[in-house]
Structures are given as C-alpha cells and as structure tokens.
Design goal:
The complex is a heterodimer of chains A (877) and B (521). Chain A has 877 residues and is mostly helical. Chain B has helices at residues 3-19, 26-50, 82-101, 110-129, 133-142, 144-154, 159-186, 194-200, 205-222, 231-238, 241-266, 268-294, 299-320, 323-354, 370-383, 390-404, 410-436, 453-471, 474-501, and strands at 61-69, 74-80. In chain B, helix 14 (323-354) runs antiparallel to helix 18 (453-471). Classes of the chains: A mainly alpha (877), B mainly alpha (521).
C-alpha cells in the first residue's frame, strides 16, 4: 500500500457544544407523542401530533444545516466537530462516553437523514391521516424515535453509541413493520426483521470485540507471531486489574509523535521519517532478550519510556500546533472511533502493521474483524444471506419503507464499512468478501425483481440490489463512491417508494401492478417523478445514479488488490464489473417494467379482485377501505393547514369516485403534501449528479470526493487506466441501462404485449423458482428454524427426562434408603422402644395386682421389703 | 445499634408485631407489611447515600461486630461492601413492590403470607450483610423456610412436589457448605469471622479444591447453574407471583453473590483450577436455557428458563476474572432482578386476570390491554439487552470482559455466549408476539382490564429503573468498583504464588496487556 506517500496526523477536534441538539429534537418529538399523542388524537387535536413530529424533524435538520455551514468554514483537516456530554459507563478498559461527532462522512449522513426524514414525515401526514390503525400518534412517535436512533448511529463518537443507534433503528423498524400488529403476518414480519438483524448484531459485536481484543495485544500472549513476547510482572496486574477508567487511561501507553503533518496536502516535512530509528533500539531489542520474565518491563512503562525517548529530541521541531511536537496518540484498545482511527492511520504507532500480522483461530485477525463487522452490515443492509427480512418489511406503511427500508437504516451497514475504511483497507480478504457478497446480492436481488407483481416488493428487491452496489463500492475501496451511491439512492429510492405510496393511495390500497396501468392520466405528478427516479436508478446520464454507479463499477474494474481466503484474486475486480453491469441491466429492466405496468396502458383496477389475488399471498396489504370517507372531514373542521392537506386529499378522493367510497374506482392524484415531496426528491435525484461529475470530465476530483476525503483516509491501490477507457466504460454502462429499458418497453409498454405471458408459460419452472424468491425463506425454515426447534425439543426432553430423572432418581434412592431405614426403625429400633414400652405396660399390669387395697397385703409387702434390706446388708459388705 | 442491623432486622420486627394482630384483619396485615417494607427501603436509602465508594474508603462499611458464641469463635459481624450494598438495595426495593403485587392475589392466610414475606426479607438481607461464616450460613438457610412455605401454601396445583424439590435440592447442597465452613474455621485459627478467615486461612492445595467445590456446589444450585437448575422451573411455575419475583429477583443472586464473596476470594487457587469448567457450564447454561425457552408453553416456565440463561451470563462474567467481566456480572445481577422481577409481575398480572399461564390461551390482547403490552415490551427489551436499557450494559461488559480476558479459549466462550443474545431476542419476541399481537382469538380475553393504579405503582419503579440503569449506569457501577479491584488483586497475588511454583505459567486473570509498541519508535 502507498501509505508512505500520505503521512496522516491525528484528527483535529473542533468542539461544537450544540451537536446533541440534532438527535435531541426527534427524541423530544417522540416523547411528546408517546406521552400526549393519544390525548391529542382523542381530543380532536390530531394535527398537533404531526406538528410536533414534523417540527422536531425540521429543527433537527436546521441544526444539522448549521453544523454543515460551520464545517464548510473550517479548513478540510479540521472538519471534525465533537461534543461530549457525559461518561455513560466505564469498567476496566471499557469506557463509553455519551459523545457525538461529525466528520464529513457523518455530516453527509446526518443531512440525508434529517432532510429526507423531514420530507418523509411531511409525506406521512397525507398518507397516514386516515389510516385504519387509528394510531396516528404511535406512527409518528416511532418515526421520530427512528430518526433519533439513526442519528445516534451516525453521530455516535464510539462503537457503543453506534450500537445504541444500530439496535435502536432495528427496534423502531420492528415497531413500524409490525405497526398493524393485529395482523399476525405483519407482526411476524416485524419480528423476523428484528431477529435477522440480531444475527447481524452478533457479527457486529464479535467484530468489535475481536478488534478490541486485537488492539489489546492478545496475540502477544497466545499466538505465535514474531511480535513482542509478553511476560507477566506484578505491575501488569495493576494495569490489567484497574477497573478505574482514569487509572487505566493514565496507564495506557501512548506514542508520541514527532513533528507531524496531519493534512497530507500541506506537505510533510522532509525529515519526517528520519527520527524514527532514533528511539528505537533500547526498547526494541527488549522483547527478544527478555525471555527471562522477571525483568520484563510493564507496558505502561514502555509507553512512558517511548514518550520520554522521543519528545525531547524534537521539542522545537514544529510550529504546527496541536498535532506537532509531543502530540500523543493513545494506542491500545478503544471503542472511540477517533482514537481508533488515529492509532491505525498514523504509521508511527505501528498498530496497523501489528494488526496486519495478527492471526486468531488460524485466520488473519483483520480479515476476521472485517468479515464479522460485515456480517453486522449484512443484517442491517440486507445482504445475502441475511436480506430475507427486507422484502417482508414492506408490511409496514409505505413512508416507513421509504425512510427506513430505502433511504436510511438499510444504509447503516454501508456507512459502517465506510466509517471503518481504514480497518477494511488493511485486509484485502475482508475487502474481497465485502465486494463479492455485494455483487452476488446485486445480481441475485435484481433477478427476483424481474417477476414480482407487488410494486413495493419490486422496490424492496431493488433496494437490496442497490445496497449490493454500495457494498461493491466500499468493498473494492472506492469509499466515497459507495457513500455517493448511498446519497443518490436515498433520493431516487425514497422518490420511488413515495411514488409507489402515492400510487397505492391513489388506487385505494392496491399494491398489485396488474391492477394498475394507465395511471399517467390520473396522476401526472406522481408519474413524472417516478419516471425521473427510474431514469436515475437505471443509470442514465444527467440523473445521479449514473455517476455513482459508474464510478463504482469503473473502480471495481480497476481493482486488482482484492483477495479471498488470504489469496490474491486479481480477477475478482473485472468479474465484479461484469456481474455489476448485468445487475445494472436488470435494474433498468425491472424498474421500467414497473413504470410501464403502472403508468401506461389502460387502467385495470376496479374489475373485481379475486382470481389473480391468490397468486401472491403477500401482494396486498389488506386494508379495509374507509367505511365513512367523509366522516372525519366533518369531525375535524381542520382550522390549520395540515389537516387541510388530508381534507384536500379527501376532496379529490370524493370527486374522483363520486361519493360512494369503495374500491376499484378511478384513481386520483395525491394531495400536495405528497406530490410536493415527490417533486423535491425527484429534483434531488437529478441535482445530486453535480456532486459527482467524474474527474475524467471535469479534470478535478468530484466535489463529494473532495468533501469526504478527510474522513476516508484509506489508500487503495487502484490500477491506473487511461481516461479514454473510462469513457468507453461509461458508454457501456449507459448501454446496459438502455438494453434494460428497451426490453421493458417492448414487453410491458401499455401492457399489450402477450410475450411476457408466453415467456412465462414457456419457462414456467424458472419463473416459479424466481417468483418464489428462489425459495430462500423455505430454505431458512428447513435449515435454521426447524432444526433449532427440534434441538430445543430434544433438549427439553433431556431436561425433563434425563436431568430431572436423575434428580428424582436421587430422590427415590434417598426414599428407598429411608424406606429401609424405616423398616429397620420399625422392626429393630422401634422394636426395642416398643419392647420397653410393652415391658413397662405389662409390668404395670402385673404390678397392678399388687395394688389390692387390703392392708394385710401391704404389710406382707413391707415385711418382705424389710427382710430384703436386712438380707442385702449382710450380703453386700 | 447501627443502621445496617436496623435495616436487616426491621422486617423481622414487623413480622413479630404482625403475629399479634388477628388473622381475620387481612387489610391490616397487608398495610403493616407494606409499611414495614417501605420503612426498610427508606432506611436502606441511608445506607445507599451513606456508603462511600471513593478510593481508600473502608472495604466494609456500617460494620458491627459483637461476640455471639464466643467459645466457638462465632460472632455477630455484619457490614457491607459495594456489591452487598447493591444487592441489599435490590432486596429492600423489591420487597415493597412484591408486597403490593400480592395485595389482591393472596386472599387466604394473608397474615401468614405477609409474615413469611417479612421474615424472608430479613433472611435475605442478613445473607448479604453477614461477615461471619456461621451467621451467613444461618441466614442463608433461614431463607429456605419462608420460601418453602410461600410455595407450599400459596402455590398452584403441583406445589408440593415443587416445594419439596426446591427445599431438598438447595438444602442438601448447603449442608456441604456447612461442613466446609467448619473445616475452614478449624484451619483459620478457630474463628468464623470472614475478614479474619480470609487472611489467615491455611490449607493444602487439594483441601482448598474440596472446600471450593463444597462452597461452589451450594452456590451453583442456588444460581442455578446447568445442570443443577431443574428445581427452578418447577419452583417458579408453582410459586405465587410474589414468590417468583423474590426467587428470581433476589434468591438467585445469593448464589452469584456467594461466588463473589466467598468461593472466589477464599479459595483463589482452587477457583483458578475449576474456572474453565465453571465458565464452560455457564456458557452451556446460556445457550441451553435459551433453547429451552423455545418450546415452553407456560409463560412462567419460559421466564424461569430465561433466568438460567441470564444467570449464565453473570457466572461467565465472574469467571472471566477481568474488571469488565466482574463489574458486568455484578451489574447483570441487578438487571436480572429488575427485568425478570418485572416479567414475573407482568405474567402474574395476566394470571390474575385469566387464571392461566399458558401462552396459547392468549394472543392479540395488545389492543385490549395496551399498557400491559407496552410495559411487557419494555421489559422484554431490557431482558434481551437492547442498548438504552439496563440489560445492555451488563451484557456488553460481560462479553467484552470475557473476550478480553486471559482465560483459555475465552474468545470461544464469549462468541458462544454472544449467540445467547440472538436466542434471547428470538424467544422473548416470540412470546410477545404470541401473547399480545395478531388477532384476538380467545373470547375469554375480550374483557381483560388494563393496568390498575396499584399495578402501575408496582411496575412503575421497575420500568423507571430499566431506563435509568440503561442510560446512567455509572452510579450503579461505582460501588462495585472497589470490591472488583480487591478481588482482582487477590487473584493477582494467587497467580504470583502459582507462578512461584511453576515459572512457565502464564497469567489467566485480568485483560490482555497493551502491546509493547516501542519497536516502532
């Protein structure tokens, strides 16, 4: 790797004491709605619910925008805003602060989340107003809470806070998918999402602990590497045993930096590398010689010694301020992203080299860390094989699908990999796996998208596929492009989802595309925005998807650094390119198929539901229709603007089908809260392209790449290819999109062609397999769920029959002994006792006869007694 | 008389006073028990705020030491370290809640029930406060009697089997400990005083192992650790709600506390010897308990098995012998008391309404009883360790402590234990789904009332604690710091001794040291 050319310094922290407000507003919004929302709703002030929720989002966005402006005014290398609130907990070496941080990457994420989040909240006002669940407040409370969690995820300054958000978004997703919890299937979908995500979380935690463990130097004691050998000394325990965070912080070794040029662009001083050898010998030789344990120095002392050795020599070397002379980088286990980044990225610490050499369980540590963390990402970002929850998650209300299952939560995995770019970039194997799984997912999910009829399912599989593209990006190492695709996808996919939501609303809760068609006549705005978004996702120029997707595929083609199982695989990059191109063709096909089926031809709704319905049990979200469409209008005179939207929608609704609320009637365009949001998103999907105009066109790095570069420090050795070739590849990309478009156009334009039906008949086997999503859910049932249940039953039997049998057996043995004991007791012990008793009784009975009452008898007795005494007197001397 | 003794014996005094009230006055007995347990809690707040957790503070605070049976070296010696303090607080906080929860549930022999509760409280508090081995043993065993009665008299159908099983299981194991205690006193200069014994105990290595085992078995049954756990599901299922809450909330902690206070510090070398086996059993318990939950049809049985799983985490944390693991273990004791206590309360509330604990009898009741559902979900989240709830802090510390520990194969232990986190989510969410979500199928559930004011008061503090301990855990972690450090130091010394015999021995306690990085400088 080309680290030498790019000397990096520690992150320079800019304190921004207001950052906590960004997540606070949505949290407050959620709290208000949890506590008072149902009262608002019951007392006829339903609109207060969304005023609170949307207001909280807007405030959050404004705060984020303020932070963005502040960041813009800072020089690139200082763009790291941080805000520590308090220490959450610390024990031993684990110390967790409640702290927020924004660097250009998380800034981008926060802007996406708050901006698109606000739009989707606004959309929801129109969409959920008349929802049959009668829990307007619950919906908005969850939605606000979701945004809060998502902000924690991206703004958290450490792994634990990120994990707070990570699990929090999972929880909110659970709550929102299972929003209609009285429907068993939807409740089950929510649970599935949570559980599958938990599998991912296991990976996240395992990766985190492995990394933490690796930084702790576990290898030194247990593994066989050339690293410094570790021996115990008394002092070591004081370090190991300290449960005091401050103490362990003080003891933690630090590496002093010589003069350092943090920003690469400012030019590293020439003498930079030279002093490195100076301090080395004394400590360096130590581990080898210290086979005899007793003298071996404690790590803490080492750290101190290192400090000592370096600092004086360079005391005057720099004028660069904080990161110049004497600046220290803490090394060792940390949960803090910045501390982690500093020690890994800064070459002098040697941590990166150490980590690269380590092996655990016979595998390279970093590869394992990367793969485990990626398992976490697989869960959250719906990659093979953990994607299964996402299509089912469409059971939630459509705005939820747009916000959570397209724009934000599902990108968390991509964000995490990009955040940890400096870790992933150290392991070609980890990169290879991320890219490979991303590619497979992209192709696999795209193919399922071909034959789905449920418009939301198409979009769900499309999302899975697009997330695959993002992982190709962050996998091959073009992190900025992965993040860029995340950004563009957030716009066009949110637009598509909300477009579908508008369609579903317009068609009276119909989701089956076979019952749509011809909607362009009724819903012009929805149609145009949907078309623009299709244009963007299909990768045609001037819409954003083209730039991000092409950059990813181009970089994939030029990457020869990937590896699998520790073996270099230079062919992987080009192979990914080809597969990616195929997936892009597929994307274009199924997206335009959905467009043509929905918006062109004749409207097919209202011809009765029924026979076709049985084909896809998940196809429609069975929503009872408004029994009394005008009732609510009367009940809520709607003085403020927001309910007016609902009412407006309702008016349109009323006009469109002439008063008798029912179904299968003429569709209608959605209210303005909905169409406005669609227009803004469609505009975004186009305008985002300005951020990523390729260097081959403009001659300078794309704007977004420049912006993100302080956060994405990993250097990845792409092969340099001529610009001309890049143009060819861009043309190929457009061509792929065009092919998909043409196929869709021929087969589905106006829904007249009989070819799709004929093809389906001809390849019914293939069609069935793909339509049923390759039976992956069934496979899971067979491979995971049934065996674990069987196993549980077996264990339960074991518990009840073996362990408890043993217990009861022990009990019976004891009782057996007790029985014998009792018999002995009865016949021998008691026999003896009873014998005494009998003797006594019998004796008494005999003696009773003595008690005659006749004075003569007594006198005889007294006489006999007297005689006996006298006799005894003589007999016993 | 010092505050600690007052706290310990106030419930007993209340019980004695209650004996003079006529049995017919059920209301008076309820009120008396509530007032006494609340007063105990308020007084124990004095302990909480009076306790000093600053470095250098005395190890045992609120100490009292008077001779009891001087000729045998037995004394009345009580005092609290941080861990005991936390458990005392848990006990005093849970008891009034439990008394209140039994307000309507118990209507037969109310007098006896309340007396049993109060006696039980004194016995539990005494167990945590005792600093004399015999005193400890007396309290330890006297917990059994009221508990035996609670299950045996106020339990459900199969209560006799359960209560006899519970009693004999725990009693037999404890008797081993008594033998060990007597042996220990004999080899520690004829005193039963814990603090002295800890300093002066001299035994051979093999004797130490036997002693450790005797203590460990007594504690392991109480925890309960796999495979000594089978008394627990029966006891829980048959016990009345109040009994279950106390059993899960406090009684099980006596076992883990016993490890922390007695088995580990008194016999460190032996503990090091048996540690891998105990850690392995803990991990087995985590997974085993969780898997058992999948097939339970009875809610209480499910929660009981989940306790086996959660207590496995505690034991794993203790066996990691790292600052993180021990702290996490202590924290998880509190968490389990709060979360599982709340779960049993909620199950009890459903039981009071429908007189069945069978999961299949419910379904879709969230719409009918939204607040019960909400509370249940919150407690569930805490139980599965969602960040932001108390459960997360404990699990995270335990897992990181284990992973970073130097116990052989620690990473494997931690990795397998971490699957318990997944399994936990699965069985708890399935339970929530089956009981609360979906359509309402059983007409008998159509008239369930939601939480009453009294039930809110019962659940409120626990729900509050779930959030508080999840978001501001440090105040609850602070008291554990000094005891954890002391224990670590003891083990460091033990390892020194072992290394003196075998210089090639690598340390197995504490976390991995930070790498020596001088090489790069």
């Amino acid at each position: 790797m080309e680290h030498a050319s790019h000397a990096l310094g520690p992150v320079l922290v800019e304190h921004a004491s207001y950052l906590w407000l960004v997540p606070l507003f949505p949290l407050l919004g959620a709290l208000v709605n949890v506590l008072f929302g149902w009262r608002f709703e019951r007392s006829g002030k339903k609109s207060l619910v969304h005023v609170v929720a949307v207001g909280a989002m807007a405030l959050s966005f404004l705060t984020a925008a303020y932070a963005f402006v502040q960041m813009l005014h800072l020089p690139a290398e200082r763009r790291f805003l941080q805000n520590t609130l308090w220490n959450l907990f610390s024990a031993g070496r684990v110390t967790v602060d409640l702290a927020f941080a924004l660097d250009p990457l998380s800034m981008m994420m926060v802007l996406i989340i708050t901006f698109i989040g606000t739009l989707i909240h606004l959309f929801s006002v129109g969409y959920m107003w008349e929802d049959e669940a009668k829990a307007y407040w619950r919906f908005f409370a969850w939605l606000n809470l979701f945004v809060f969690s998502m902000l924690l995820l991206v703004m958290g300054d450490n792994f634990v806070l990120m994990f707070f958000g990570w699990e929090g978004v999972g929880l909110c997703s659970y709550g929102l998918i299972a929003f209609y919890y009285t429907d068993r299937e939807k409740a089950a979908a929510g649970m599935k999402a949570f559980v599958v995500n938990r599998f991912g979380d296991f990976g996240f935690l395992a990766g985190l602990f492995l990394l933490f463990w690796g930084l702790g130097g576990a290898w030194a004691a247990s593994c066989h590497t050339g690293g410094p050998s570790y021996q115990a000394t008394p002092g070591m325990h004081s370090l190991a045993g300290a449960s005091d965070a401050a103490a362990s912080l003080a003891l933690a070794p630090r590496v002093s930096l010589r003069e350092h040029a943090a920003p690469a662009k400012h030019g590293a001083p020439a003498g930079h590398a030279a002093p490195a050898e100076h301090a080395a010998p004394a400590e360096h030789a130590a581990p080898a010689e210290h086979a005899a344990p007793a003298e071996h120095a404690v790590p803490a002392e080492h750290g101190a010694a290192a400090e000592h050795g370096t600092a004086p020599g360079h005391a005057t070397a720099s004028a660069k301020g904080e990161h110049g002379v004497g600046a220290q980088v803490m090394v060792g286990p940390t949960l803090n992203f910045r501390e982690l980044r500093d020690q890994v990225v800064i070459e002098e610490t040697g941590i990166a080299e150490h980590l690269k050499d380590q092996r655990v369980w016979g595998v390279a540590l970093l590869a394992l860390v990367g793969i485990f963390l990626f398992v976490g990402a697989m869960g959250k970002s719906a990659q093979l094989p953990l994607y299964v929850w996402l299509p089912d998650a469409m059971a939630g209300p459509t705005p939820v699908s747009a916000l959570i299952h397209a724009a934000t939560m599902v990108t968390a995995g991509v964000y995490m990999v990009a955040r940890l770019n400096f870790i992933f970039a150290l392991s070609p194997s980890a990169m290879g796996w991320v890219a490979l799984i991303g590619t497979l997912t992209a192709v696999f999910a795209a193919s399922i998208g071909f034959f789905q009829y449920d418009i939301k399912k198409v979009l769900a599989y499309s999302t899975v596929s697009q997330l695959g593209f993002m992982f190709i990006g962050v996998g091959v190492g073009v992190y900025w492009a992965g993040a860029y695709h995340l950004l563009t996808h957030a716009f066009f996919k949110a637009c598509l989802f909300l477009g579908s939501g508008s369609v579903i609303l317009g068609c009276h809760h119909e989701q089956d595309m076979r019952k749509m068609g011809g909607l362009k006549k009724y819903m012009p705005i929805t149609r145009w925005t949907y078309l623009i978004a299709c244009w963007a996702i299909a990768g045609f120029p001037w819409a954003a998807g083209f730039y991000s997707k092409d950059e990813i595929l181009w970089k994939a083609f030029t990457s020869e650094h990937l590896a699998l199982f520790g073996t270099a695989t230079p062919w992987l990059g080009p192979a990914i390119y080809i597969a990616g191109l195929l997936a892009a063709t597929g994307t274009s096909f199924y997206m335009f198929r959905s467009y043509f089926m929905t918006f062109t031809g004749e409207y097919r709704g209202g011809q009765g539901h029924g026979h076709e319905h049985g084909e896809d049990p998940h196809a429609s979200v069975a929503a009872p229709h408004h029994a009394d469409p005008h009732g609510h209008h009367d009940a809520h005179p709607a003085p403020d603007p927001a309910p007016a939207h609902g009412a407006h929608g309702h008016d349109a609704h009323g006009q469109a089908h002439g008063g008798h609320g029912g179904h299968g009637h003429t569709p209608h365009e959605s209210p303005w809260t909905i169409t406005l949001v669609l227009v803004v998103l469609a505009a975004g999907a186009v305008l985002c392209s300005l951020l990523g105009l390729p260097a081959a066109w403009t001659g300078h790095e794309p704007l977004l790449e420049q912006w993100l570069s302080p956060a994405l420090t990993a250097e990845v050795p792409f092969v340099h290819k001529p610009h001309a070739l890049e143009f060819v590849f861009q043309a190929l990309g457009v061509g792929a999109g065009a092919i998909g478009f043409v196929f869709a156009w021929v087969l589905y334009k106006d829904n007249k062609s009989k070819v799709p039906a004929a093809l389906k008949e001809k390849f019914l086997g293939v069609w069935t397999v793909v339509y049923n999503k390759y039976y992956v859910d069934e496979l899971y049932d067979l491979v995971v769920i049934r065996p674990s249940l069987a196993w549980s039953r077996a264990l339960s039997w074991f518990d009840g029959h073996i362990i408890d049998w043993l217990v009861n057996f022990a009990g019976s043995v004891a009782r057996g002994f007790a029985g014998i004991d009792g018999w002995i007791d009865k016949h021998f012990v008691d026999g003896a006792v009873n014998a005494v008793a009998t003797l006594t009784i019998e004796g008494g009975r005999t003696l009773r006869r003595v008690q005659t009452g006749r004075i003569q008898t007594y006198l005889y007795g007294a006489l006999a007694g007297g005689l006996a005494v006298i006799l005894l007197n003589f007999l016993i001397p | 008389m010092n505050l600690l003794s007052v706290v310990v014996f106030l419930p007993l005094a209340g019980a004695i006073a209650a004996a003079f009230f006529p049995p017919a006055e059920a209301g008076q007995h309820r009120a008396l028990a509530l007032v006494v347990s609340l007063a105990t809690f308020l007084l124990s707040l004095g302990l909480w705020f009076g306790f000093s957790a600053v470095p250098g503070a005395p190890e045992f605070q609120f100490e009292t030491k008077v001779p009891w049976i001087a000729s045998l070296g037995i004394g009345y010696h009580v005092g609290l370290d941080g861990v005991a303090l936390l458990l005392v607080m848990l006990t005093t906080a849970l008891t009034p809640i439990v008394v209140l929860s039994a307000w309507n549930a118990v209507h037969e022999r109310v007098k006896e029930f309340m007396i049993a509760m109060l006696v039980l409280e004194t016995a539990m508090l005494g167990t945590f406060a005792a600093l004399d081995l015999v005193l400890f043993y007396v309290f330890w065993e006297s917990v059994l009697i009221p508990m035996y009665l609670l299950i045996g008299i106020w339990g459900s159908d199969n209560r006799l089997y359960a209560t006899v099983k519970f009693f004999i299981y725990t009693f037999v194991a404890s008797v081993l400990m008594l033998v060990a205690i007597i042996y220990v006193a004999g080899h520690a200069g004829g005193t039963f005083d814990y603090v002295q014994v800890r300093q002066t105990l001299q035994t051979t290595a093999s004797a130490q192992r036997w002693l450790f085992l005797a203590f460990a078995v007594a504690f392991a049954v109480k925890v309960p650790m796999f495979p000594l756990h089978t008394w627990l599901p029966d006891a829980h299922t048959e016990a009345p709600t109040a009994g279950s809450v106390i059993l899960a909330g406090v009684l099980l902690k006596m076992g883990t506390f016993g490890f922390f206070r007695y088995a580990l510090p008194l016999f460190p070398e032996a503990a090091l010897h048996f540690r891998p086996a105990i850690a392995a059993l803990a991990v087995v318990g985590i997974v085993y308990g969780a898997l058992m939950c999948f097939v339970q049809k009875d809610m209480k049985r499910l929660v009981a098995y989940s306790s086996v799983s959660h207590l496995g985490f505690v034991m794993l944390g203790l066996m990691a012998l790292t600052a993180e693991g021990l702290t996490g273990g202590v924290y998880q004791m509190l968490n389990h008391g709060v979360s599982t206590g709340a779960l049993f309360l909620l199950v009890g509330m459903l039981y009071e309404r429908r007189h069945t604990r069978l999961i299949s009898e419910y379904g879709g009741i969230a719409r009918r009883v939204p607040w019960i559902a909400t509370a249940f979900v919150i407690v569930t989240l805490s139980s599965i360790g969602l960040p932001g709830t108390n459960g997360f802090v404990g699990e995270f510390l335990i897992l990181s402590g284990t992973w970073l520990g130097r116990l052989a194969h620690a990473t494997w232990f931690a990795a397998v234990a971490a699957t318990g986190v997944i399994l936990g989510a699965v069985y708890m969410l399935i339970l929530v789904e089956r009981v609360f979500f979906g359509p309402m199928r059983n007409a008998k559930n159509s008239a369930l009332p939601d939480l009453s004011l009294r039930e809110w008061v019962v659940l409120g503090p626990l729900l509050l604690l779930i959030g508080l301990m999840g978001l501001v855990p440090q105040p609850f972690l602070d008291p554990a710091k000094a005891p954890v450090d002391r224990l670590m130091t003891r083990f460091a010394a033990a390892e020194q001794r072992l290394r003196a015999q075998d210089p090639s021995r690598l340390p197995t306690t504490g976390t991995q040291p930070t790498p020596v990085l001088a090489g790069r400088q």
